[in-house]
Structures are given as C-alpha cells and as structure tokens.
Design a protein that fits this description.
mainly alpha
Length: 93
Amino acid sequence: MTDAGAIDAASKRLALALDALEAALERRRDADRGEKTLGAQLQALGTDRSRLAADLDAQAARVRALESTNREVAHRLDAAIDTIRSVIQTHGQ
C-alpha cells in the first residue's frame, strides 16, 4: 500500500470512529434527557402523593366528625321519640 492509500484508509477509519463517537454522544444526550424527564416525573408524583395523603387525612377527619354528628342526632331523635311516646301514653289513656 502506498503512503497515499494508507493515509486514505486511516482517514476513513478516523471518519468512521468520529461518526461512531458522535452517535454515542447523541445516545448519551438522549439518555440524559430521559433521566431528567424521569426525575421530574418522580418529583411530580411525590408531590401528588403528598397532596393526596393530606386530602385523605382531611376527608378521614371529616368522616369522623360527620359520624359523631350523626350519632348525636340519632340520640336526640331517640330522646324526642321517647318523649312523644310518653306524652301520647299520658294523654291517650
């Protein structure tokens, strides 16, 4: 092989190596973008989870308060029914 042929072959190998390096760099950039996107999604999910947990706690407290109110109303209704029955029995006889 002549010097010119060797230089041409070396130039082609160098060009192929540079193309491969450029492709690898582009794949790395894509992977980095994917990691950043995934990180942002994970952070958003964490924020959503925290918000949902707080909402769930608030709703559970509201349910407890409503159950307590419901029991109180039931007791008052029972007392009122007993009073009405007593009045009916007293005045009905």
